[in-house]
Specification:
The protein is mainly α. The chain has a domain at 12-84. Helix content is 52%, strand content 0%. The chain has helices spanning 12-15, 32-48, 57-80, 92-104. The longest helix is centred in the middle third of the chain and has 24 residues, at 57-80.
Amino acid sequence: MGTKANPGPFDCYVLARDDEPMFTVIARDPMMPVLVRLWADIQLAGMASGHVPDDQVGRECEKVAEALKVARDAEAWREAHVITNPPQPPSIEDTGAMIEAANRRPKGRRP
């Protein structure tokens, strides 16, 4: 598993270009394991449907395996650190309302 102190072989901080946008989710976020597993499922579906060149399938499989391990490790970390009263993930309805509100925000303004 990659950590801040010990980056993994697919660490985005090491691999990202200087001006490349990134989005990071850490184990304290209760949605982290779910989001990582969703990403892994999408990657596997892309490979199954031929969206990954044959010469990259092995490396992509390694990324997926690492991602699934990170999801398991995040759950273990959360359990070991006894996160009390974790925030609950928003419902689908709440998420839709948040997206609609964000889309109504004037362009160029950030929260």
